[in-house]
Amino acid sequence: MLKIAVPNKGSLSETAAQMLAEAGYNGRKDPKELIVADHANDVEFFYLRPRDIATYVGSGALDVGVTGRDLLLDSGSEAGEIDELGFAASTFRFAGPAGRFSELKELEGLRVATSYDGLVGDYLREAGVSVTLVRLDGAVESAVRLGVADAVADVVETGSTLRKQGLEIFGPVILQSQAVLIGAPGDPAPGLATLQRRLQGVMVARRYVLIDYDLPSHLIEKAVALTPGVESPTISPLRDTGWVAVRAMVPKTSTNRIMDDLYELGARAILVTPIHAARL
Ligand SMILES: Nc1ncnc2c1ncn2[C@@H]1O[C@H](COP(=O)(O)OP(=O)(O)OP(=O)(O)O)[C@@H](O)[C@H]1O
Ligand SMILES: O=P(O)(O)OC[C@H]1O[C@H](OP(=O)(O)OP(=O)(O)O)[C@H](O)[C@@H]1O
Ligand SMILES: [Mg+2]
Q1: What 3-state class would DSSP assign to 260?
Q2: What NCBIfam families has UniProt attached to this entry (predicted)?
Q3: What pTM value is reported for the model?
Q4: Mean pLDDT, consecutive 10-residue segments, the chain of 280 residues?
Q5: How many domains is the chain built from?
Q6: Does 177 sit in the ligand 1 pocket, CB within 6 Å?
Q7: Domain co-membership, 83 together with 186
């Protein structure tokens, strides 16, 4: 059975569980459950703290896991990143009191608060800047106001937590992070390829919709440029010989723009349907 580590709490847990459910796996029903066997799919789920997942997978105790790229790098574990999972996107940045810092080297000799001391320590060592790291568990944006640090290094999504504390980002981007599937060192575990294909299917189903439309045949080339599909759009004859029906996958976020452009071009009966599941 493939042993899969899943975040039990925090910002990754809900979407990770949802993706696995959409991929056809039977996860836990009771949030107090820590280990759940899904015999039908020949996998076993281990619900663990997101920060610990890389440690378990890196040691080989578990085959694969869902965690954040930032947590993986912070752990220093030997687990490897297998696939991006397309959620929990963030950047990892330095921040200080508005207007105080403009360059990384200005941190030399100062105190930097973070929950990711492994990641930040490695980064600053590489950059040749020597600081005192203040390791905090969370809410690090308060550290400057409360006087325990001169700057912070933390996860930034919208930036609103920083702004509310009078902080602003400065210096280079430490990392672009998102949720990732990680694997134990060595040969891929049996069953891993199936898990990967299923998760990729879920990502496609979340990211794309199907668009169908009718079109005068002489406009095919122009319409196909608007909806190239993933491989190539399907074009079927209509009873009226001057027209064709076109079907293609398009990114969900551009649906309305594409519908406007198609209508403008001369397409009619433009229909959009969600994709329930996919294997490409
Ligand atoms: N606001 C956010 N936007 C996107 N990703 C985030 C956000 N906050 C945390 N993450 C990501 O979630 C992961 C951290 O998850 P974890 O559950 O440990 O922290 P948390 O959500 O902050 O929970 P906790 O309440 O324990 O601090 C990291 O990969 C991090 O990049
Ligand atoms: O840029 P923003 O959109 O404001 O999001 C970033 C914030 O979200 C997370 O905090 P979380 O709520 O997990 O609290 P924590 O700091 O205690 O982990 C993260 O640690 C940042 O503080
Ligand atoms: Mg947090």
Answers
A1: helix
A2: hisG, HisG_C-term
A3: 0.92
A4: 97 97 96 97 98 98 98 98 98 98 98 98 98 97 98 98 97 98 96 97 96 98 95 94 97 97 98 93
A5: 3
A6: yes
A7: yes
